[in-house]
Amino acid sequence: MSDKNALIQPDRGQKAVSIHLVDKDGLEKFLKGLSVPQRAAIAANRFTGAANDHAIIPDGDGDSDGWAVVAGVADTAALTSWCMARLAEKLPAGTYRRVGGEPGAAMLGWIAGQYSFERYLSEPGDEGPRVLLTGEPKTIDAMTAEAEAIMLVRDLVNTPAEDMGPAQLEAEAENLHKSYRAEIRITRGDLLERDFPMVHAVGRAASRSHAPRMIELEWGDPAHPRVAVVGKGVCFDSGGLDIKPGAGMLLMKKDMGGAAHALALARLIMSANLPVRLHLLVPAVENAIAGNAFRPGDVLKSRAGISVEIGNTDAEGRLILGDALTRAGEGKPDLIIDFATLTGAARVAVGPDLPALFTRLDATADALLAAGKAQDDPCWRLPLHEGYREYLKSDIADINNAGSSGFAGASTAALFLDRFVPKGIDWAHFDTFAWRPAAKPGRPRGGDALGLRAAWHMLRARYA
Q1: What is the total count of domains within the chain?
Q2: How far is it, in rounded angstroms, from Cα 164 to Cα 354?
Q3: For residue 368, how far is the Cα from the chain centroid?
Q4: H-helix segments, 63-139
Q5: Cα(435)–Cα(256) distance, integer angstroms
Q6: Residue 380 forms beta bridges with which residues?
Q7: Closest by alpha carbon to 326, among 224, 416, 431?
Q8: Shortest CA distance to 189 belongs to which of 172, 166, 169?
Q9: Do 127 and 170 have their domain in common?
Q10: 391-418, pLDDT tens digit by residue?
Q11: What CA–CA distance (Å, rounded) separates 52 from 83?
Q12: What gap in Å lies between CA 432 and CA 231, rounded to an integer?
């Protein structure tokens, strides 16, 4: 990944290629102001003003080596985060300037559109950067921080499990600890078994190099409102003894996507110096298979004192989150937000683009949904329906980790987590996919941040 700080620069009158943004409604008027050669070039490109389409035309003012860009957007009066991302992907390296207005929200997609994951390529791409100029330099740092948070999620999720195990998640937290002078606490071994028994049980079958641990980081003034951010860190999920089929394991390097979101959100909070007392928690494990793996039918202890019967070892994410949410609640936070690649049922319900959102409070849901809509990071709320708690009943323990019904799998999983969040605490749960199965402008196929910016902008509005 190249230096993304250089991709948006203040406009000081540098020589730059002109970008003209038009929408379908304004195309006819725009064409009237062009020369005959320019209109001929647009016609030859069959450019209609459709979003994400563009054409190269001769530049009448001679300011940009003889050519300019005309690009289609849905609405020139309301630019989205991704409306110029295709240009950032397709245009040659160079410096560009939007004519007739500022790029605004589109700066995010301009940076994110130049992302590539090249860690394992013997011949990485060598294209130079496409730099976008802006007359609003005060927005550069904020936009760059958000784009870098997105790309951090992508990098972590795209990295194979052998190189992104619990130790590597710990290293990412160590980087935050050093960069922002945060307090860090890592719990492993016998102490993990004692203090976070479900995290230990899920991860104990992994090799020593991928041994389980609880990663905690605290930052900020203790007098400020306490906010806990929790991320599911299952670095690979075989399914355990309820083993997944081969096809079901292909994407399981992404099962730590919740941890990637939590780490990225923590970095946004600290880099912006948001006035909160941050508590980051990442239970990091590999759900492996060995003679000491936890079994279907076992009853696990939990940090909360709730006994859990194991109906399915492939429902392991909710187990480690149960211990983490219990720990988060002990600090009596003003708000807990967790991210997890938790259920296939959420993907069946809302597809890959929309994180399923669960909250206890309507006001919190409304704030998150509104922030997601405003920032082009949409979410969709699903119910914490009390009637479905009966699906988690156990004959021999306080609760079962796998629902007894094939219905409402995402809600059932969220209700399991709800049991471990102390009563009276505001809590939001994102069941996110953390993966993009098909590329979109600015969003290549692979790991991606879904729900991250919705959460960040809600936090900024609530606490800034």
Answers
A1: 2
A2: 25
A3: 14
A4: 85-90, 106-112
A5: 11
A6: 356
A7: 416
A8: 166
A9: no
A10: 999 999 999 999 888 899 999 999 999 9
A11: 7
A12: 11
**Cα(111)–Cα(89) distance, rounded to whole angstroms?**
10
- Alpha-carbon distance 320 to 214, whole Å? 9
Which has the closest alpha carbon to 152: 231, 36, 213? 231
Same domain, yes or no, for 114 and 154? no
397: nearest Cα among 293, 300, 316: 300
Catalytic residues: 244, 318
> First-to-last CA distance in the chain?
31
Residue 444, number of CB atoms within 10 A of its CB: 19
What's residue 5's pLDDT? 58
The tens digit of pLDDT for each residue in 35-57 reads 999 999 999 999 999 999 999 99
Helix (H, G, I), strand (E, B) or coil at 175: helix
Nearest residue to 415 via CA among 322, 297, 347, 335 = 322
3-class SS at 204? coil
User: Sign of the CA dihedral 458, 372, 280, 328?
Assistant: positive
CA-based nearest residue to 106, from 76, 129, 128, 127: 76
Residue listed under structure tokens 């001679």: 62
H/E element holding 358? Answer: strand 356-359
Query: Which domain does 364 fall in, by range?
Result: 145-463
- Pairwise CA distance, residues 446 & 220, whole Å: 33
Dist. CA 134–CA 12, nearest whole Å: 9
Residues 127 and 232 in one domain: no
> pLDDT, tens digit, for every residue of 368-393?
999 999 999 999 999 999 999 999 99
Give the model's confidence band at 284: pLDDT under 50 very low, under 70 low, under 90 confident, else very high. Answer: very high
CATH number at residue 63: 3.40.220.10
Same domain, 404 and 264: yes
**63 pLDDT more than 60:** no
Q: Give the C-alpha distances (Å, rounded to integers) separating 446 from 157, 343, 438, 451.
A: 8, 18, 8, 16
**Tokens read off for 212:** 């389980």
Residue 126: burial class (beta carbons within 10 Å; 0-12, 13-18, 19+): exposed
CA proximity to 408, closest of 427, 421, 389: 389
Residue 162 and residue 109 share a domain? no
pLDDT tens digits, 177-221: 999 999 999 999 999 999 999 999 999 999 999 999 999 999 999
Q: For residue 103, which amino acid is it?
A: P
Within 10 Å of residue 229's Cβ, how many Cβ atoms? 27
The answer as to whether 301 is a domain residue is yes
d(CA 428, CA 22): 39
CATH number at residue 410: 3.40.630.10
Based on the fold, state whether residues 94 and 177 are members of the same structural domain. no
- The backbone torsions φ and ψ at residue 83, rounded to the nearest 5 degrees and listed phi first, read -70, -20
- Extract the tokens encoding 289: 């298979």
Mean pLDDT of the chain: 96
